[in-house]
Amino acid sequence: MQPSLFSDLSDLRDRETGAITPFKTQLIKWVGNKQRYADQIITHFPRTYGMYYEPFLGSGGVMANLAPARALGSDVFAPLMEIWQCLAQDPERLKTWYADRWTWFQAGDRLERYEKIKADYNAAPNGADLLFLCRSCYGGVVRFRKKDGLMSTPLGSHPVVKPEKFAQRVDMWVPRVAGARFERLDYLEALARANAGDLVYCDPPYSHSQSILYGAQKFRLEELMEGIADAKSRGVYVALNIDGTKKSGNTYCEIPYPADLFEHEHFVNIGRSMLKRFQMDGQSLETEVVRDRLLLTY
């Protein structure tokens, strides 16, 4: 069902064990980014499937590790999807978006110029500004204020990656998403498009902690579960990444779902909470280790 991967990605899986070869190079920074743990997640995917769907695309870390031959990545957040569509359709333009802003940012007072780019984005949300902001903001936490929806994350203290290094990242990502197309879609519409034998990986915002982040898709958990149940009834494989445990495993996040919807449950250790690090001003957070729950309909 799943065709062979591109020739330059032939080493993606270990031929003997089938384990995924981790791809750690991020294109954009994003809260909830699963790229460092994607190889663990992918071990629970079916070995064969038709088309791959990722309706809460975010930073695309799982897709980049999987490098599917046919895929649809989607989200309702228009500026984010502009970035992915540009990567797929005109990667040189994506490099220029970043280089132009980085050069202007470095040529003056970095704080003032960061705030100017952020103000331009807030006045007219767009992918080009968001691309630079997510790589330069504090902790990569693209946060929006509840009262007015404006991005509020301050400038980070870290060095901002140079254009030539970002261009190298783009070149590494292009073949990994060559089989994908990207659309601005509601997650339920994306789920509804999947056919028998297809695979859908859902990574929605955490119910317990991410209500103000990155223009997150608004969703009701009950509605998501209904969409997953409908997909399962059509023979679609669905993997749901959702809250598991926090406080170093001492707090179990209760997530309501139909008893017969999922066949298996696994836990993935995703390390210390990026959001808590932002909220607690960079503390070491030994007590904020998080494990995600991976629920499978198959």
Summarize the SSE layout with pairings.
Elements: H1 38-42, E1 52-54, H2 61-66, E2 71-75, H3 78-89, H4 91-106, H5 110-123, H6 127-136, H7 163-173, E3 180-184, H8 187-193, E4 199-202, H9 221-233, E5 237-246, E6 251-252, E7 264-272, H10 274-279, E8 289-296
Parallel strand pairs: 1-2, 1-4, 2-3, 4-5
Antiparallel strand pairs: 5-6, 5-8, 7-8
Helix pairs in contact: 3-4, 3-6, 4-5, 4-6, 4-7, 5-6, 8-9
What does this structure look like?
It is globular and about 60 Å long. The protein has 298 residues and is an alpha/beta fold. It has two domains: 7-77 and 178-296, Rossmann fold; 86-166, Orthogonal Bundle (Adenine-specific Methyltransferase, domain 2). 34% of the residues lie in helices and 15% in strands. It has helices at 38-42, 61-66, 78-89, 91-106, 110-123, 127-136, 163-173, 187-193, 221-233, 274-279; strands at 52-54, 71-75, 180-184, 199-202, 237-246, 251-252, 264-272, 289-296. Helix 3 (78-89) crosses helix 4 and helix 8 packs parallel to helix 9 (221-233). The protein has ten helices and eight strands. Residues 1-8, 208-212, 273-280 and 284-288 have low confidence and may be disordered. Its EC number is 2.1.1.72. It is an enzyme of class 2 (transferase). One of its GO terms (molecular function) is site-specific DNA-methyltransferase (adenine-specific) activity.
